[in-house]
Amino acid sequence: MAEDLNIITGNKAEQYESLVPQVKGLLEGEPDLVANMANVVAALKEQFGWLWIGFYIVKSEELVLGPFQGPVACTRIKKGKGVCGTSWAQAKTLIVPDVEKFPGHIACSSLSKSEIVIPLIRNNEVVAVLDVDSSEYDQFDSTDQHWLEQIVDLIVFKK
């Protein structure tokens, strides 16, 4: 696939419906996890323009910053700390409408107002998380969860 995206406007579901097959095409034939993470992040940033989108990769007992787009970020996050560390510990997607109300939120950027974190699970183990931050409150919902989990699955089940 060409490395150009067809960016569309419209409702959120329509944007995702257009983006998912394009992401699948970007990942096709590429076995490298970091390269695929980088292209997923770039595609999401191009389509939605959120404040920050990136991956944290599990290394030993920490999440370590991986490919991302946006302002500089926290480099390491402990298991169970902040939204990312909690998603890792619970092995589930977390949607946070107001990050200031999340117990133990790690403020990597004061511009971040809401967040969604999706774990990448391989062989029943979280190997990374996709973290998306918005500068608007209550930005993410079940539509984002549904589609972002599908996108993460494209990476997770990549052979």
Describe this structure in words.
This protein has 159 residues and is an alpha+beta fold. It has four helices and six strands; from the N terminus they run ααβββαβββα. A hairpin with a 2-residue loop joins strand 5 (114-122) and strand 6. Helix 1 (12-27) packs antiparallel against helix 2 and helix 1 (12-27) runs parallel beside helix 4 (142-156). The chain starts with 11 loop residues before the first helix and ends with a helix. The relative contact order is 0.17.
Quick tags:
159 residues; alpha+beta; Beta-Lactamase; 4 helices
Oligomeric organization of the protein chains: single chain
Total helix count? Answer: 4
Mean residue pLDDT: 92
| CATH level 1 name | Alpha Beta
What is the number of independent domains?
1
Q: Any low-confidence stretches, pLDDT <50, length ≥5? A: none
General shape: globular
User: What string, H for helix and E for strand, traces the elements in order?
Assistant: HHEEEHEEEH
**Which strand order spans the largest sheet, edge to edge or round the barrel?**
3-2-1-6-5-4
Report the CATH superfamily. Answer: GAF domain
Distance between the termini: 18 Å
| CATH fold description | Beta-Lactamase
CATH architecture call: 2-Layer Sandwich
Largest β sheet strand count, sense and barrel closure: 6 strands, antiparallel
Task: Please provide the count of β strands.
Answer: 6
Helix content: 25-40%
- Global structural class: alpha+beta
Tell me the fraction of residues in β-strands, as a range.
25-35%
